[in-house]
């Protein structure tokens, strides 16, 4: 069930083509914001570029940083120029958390003194912590999940107990989580459930934790015959990527059915298509 190696020869050219496509969407300011939601796309693009640059099993921050710095817009701007300018503005906890998880830490930049342009540092962790509410949330439920992951990923960081409790209490009876974090709902989705599993792991929950197991079982039941996970009725690359992240975050190898058979024994013996 566990990931034991690195490298998928068939995936490399696919990932390279995807990275080339992403680079083609770069805006003059160095970012990739095309949907009109500030901070929504560029951190994801940075992480994709950094991931495609890896040449070994262990994460190399130097390779990641060089690849991102080498992605230059028509005006000479890199994604880090965008990230620095964005960090200089007014950030909510979720925006700061995405910069920590997807930009600062993977590229070896300081999350407490984030300053790629060397024009004045921003403490992203402080921006996250400033959003903490008495009930443990950091704003929306999705923002709370990202904030928890960011705080734990930062060296010496930890997730507030109230936040961990909030995440657990939002799990629906079927094992998943919905966008609103409503435990009484029946609209659990793959993306939120995957993010919640990652956040629970960030709080210190093991793969054997009942909440983590139930979340993974929800993902197992939601997987399509194609190997993908769907959103709005069709196979969706983003939902599939989020589910794969949740599985690997819990320590499982999504390429085979072992994880599924362990968390959802009733599905053992059914055909399995790898999402990778």
Poorly predicted ranges: none
User: Hey, roughly how much beta strand do the residues contain?
Assistant: under 5%
Largest sheet: 2 strands, antiparallel
Q: Look at the helices and sheets and give the structural class.
A: mainly alpha
Element string (H = helix, E = strand): HHHHHHHHHHEEHH
- The number of distinct helices, counting runs of at least 4 residues, comes to 12
Q: What integer is the average pLDDT?
A: 94
- Spatially, the strands of the biggest sheet line up as 1-2
Cα gyration radius (Å)? 19 Å
What does this 3D model show about the protein?
- 46% of the residues lie in helices and 1% in strands.
- The protein has 276 residues and is mainly alpha-helical.
- It has a two-stranded antiparallel sheet with strand order 1-2.
- A hairpin with a 2-residue loop joins β1 (230-231) and β2.
Reconstruct the topology from this structure.
Blueprint: H1 11-24, H2 42-52, H3 61-69, H4 79-87, H5 93-104, H6 124-129, H7 141-153, H8 161-169, H9 190-202, H10 210-222, E1 230-231, E2 234-235, H11 237-249, H12 258-263
Antiparallel strand pairs: 1-2
Keyword list:
single chain, 276 residues, mainly alpha, two-stranded antiparallel ribbon
